[in-house]
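Bug report

Summary: structure tokens for Deoxynucleoside triphosphate triphosphohydrolase SAMHD1 homolog isoform X1 differ between web form and batch submission.
Environment: batch mode, default settings.
Steps: 1) Submit the sequence below via batch. 2) Compare with the web form result.

Sequence submitted:
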Amino acid sequence: MSATLVCANSQNQQSTQVPALPIQQQQLLLRQQLLGCDGAATVPNMLIEDEVHGVIEIPSHIEEILNHEIFQRLKRVKQTGLLSLAVNPASTQTRYEHCIGTYKSAQDLLTALKRNSNYERELPEWCRQSVEIAALLHDVGHGPFSHYWEQVCGKSFDHEQNGLVCVDKIFADMKSEILRSLRDDNNGRGVQLIKALILDKSELLTYPMMGHGYLFDIIHNSRSGLDVDKWDYLRRDNKRLKLLSDEDMQFDDVFLKARIAPDGQRIEYRYDDFHLIYKLYMARWRLHIGAYQQPKALAFDYILCKIVRRCKPHLLDVRADSKEWLDLYDDHVLQLIDCDPLTVYLRSPERWIESAPCDGNNEECVCVLRKKTAPGVDMHSDESYPLYGDPSKKRSFDRLTTPTTISACYTLQ
């Protein structure tokens, strides 16, 4: 792995290449090299070693966000919830890692868009910063066990709406001039854009985007479903789950070859890569069938719901504006519900024995039944994807549209 880090003073900027070394040695080498930049020590940017992206350079204003206690909480929230307990012990990746990876993915997509586009409107620096921070904070409002917590709380909990409270609380504490400018300048236009991008609601803005509407295709793209959130979590989760081959995951060009549409309102994808969009959705579907919606994982979710609702129902009302929020993370919730006789089964997957269907009246028998939509249905219609290039290079493919039934019963022993 390698990273490019910047040594800068008020007069000029100079890139310093750091060779492929362990992260601690890279930090030391960087400090030694920075001493020679202008004869005085310069504080280097933070480096993070990431299993998907390699070494990620973190500028000082982003480091300030990472160090905030609300963001640090994400280190204790697993990306795939109870999956590491129920099915795959290796699936211990966290929302902290995913958020940083999504930040890097947003940087990569913005770089690709600039490289591939002949678009005259330059993206203002405050807009670029807002996009990167929206990617970083897009999941900051997740509850314990990530999406599992939304099942526990039902429709009363929305991690994105909750995340907007987190954004405000984080920015209220920021000291960086860059972050304070995003918060305070021009009626807080930067923080406005961050929130609007997280929700994918441009109508929240009090100003027009002036030819940069395509930014709403980057973080939370409800228009076509292609965004940097998916781009990171599919790669990150498969790194741990090891369900899909390298060939199955070859869809990076969907993003790396994308460009800005001539009117600046959308991101366009190549005709050459249209079949790779389906490959992305096929990969997502296979991760759902092979991991996220494994019957035992769904059964664990059911048991967690039952325990929390009867044992600690007040947790269902905890939000980011509560003093309890920082302590609402996976291991602490498991500690709080440890008194319930069913909690032992969340820690002992070997005591779940697949069995014949039961009548539902026995607490020590759990049955799950769910239908997972097919990738050909999850993928949006062809018209949802603005395409450019040579139409003859658009490959045809057959969409899988038959849903998959997921069912099993378990006896708890």
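Above is the batch result. After comparison, the two runs are identical; trailing whitespace caused the diff. The CA atoms of residues 73 and 327 lie 8 Å apart. Residues 1-19, 34-43 have pLDDT under 50 and may be disordered.
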